[in-house]
Amino acid sequence: MTEYRFTTYRKMRLWINEMLIHNIEPEKSLSQSFILPDTTEICLPKKSIILEMFFPRNCSYYGLLGVKYFTNNSNQVNVKVNIGNRNNKKYINSLSYNDNELIVGLTEEYAPAVLEKALLKIEELKIAGSFEFDIAVCDNVGSSIMVFRIITGMLMELIANDKFILSEENINLLIRNETQKSQYNTCK
After folding, report:
1. Dist. CA 11–CA 142, nearest whole Å
2. How far apart are the C-alpha atoms of 80 and 57, rounded to whole Å?
3. Are 134 and 82 spatial neighbours (Cβ–Cβ below 8 Å)?
4. Model pTM score
5. Residue boundaries of the structural domains of the chain
6. Which terminal CB of the chain, N or C, has fewer other CB atoms within 10 Å?
């Protein structure tokens, strides 16, 4: 695990090919498969990445999301977003100051935004393969669609480019771009 502290309150943690939370049986999932045209067959290494973000911004500030990536040596893309069963499993030792309100599992509210953002980044970055978003932690008070879109964008950048740096400048740029592109209210 690598921890990034940008200010007293703005911080992130990144796990690459490490297990953080045991997989939770999903209640259901969203998925989409398609052929990505005009892509070069790039064999990216199999990866598992988890990103936890605590960036106070209005009323939207916390999220944790994990993705497993497998190459399939073709133009085929498979994206699966697991929706947690909200079984009241708690995630302790988070970056949030609100451990009592953190629930393991992605909600139905945030899952479509994760799928949508992943599909956009796949087309932008031209990466084929299988992506399974299987680990998430939501804050009952401080998570939002915007936070999960930003985290999804960062995860996809990290899968496509080992040289992508989680610097405050890059993160602020991603947040600014996402905020400008998004149709969602940051407090939703």
Report:
1. 15
2. 29
3. yes
4. 0.85
5. 2-181
6. N
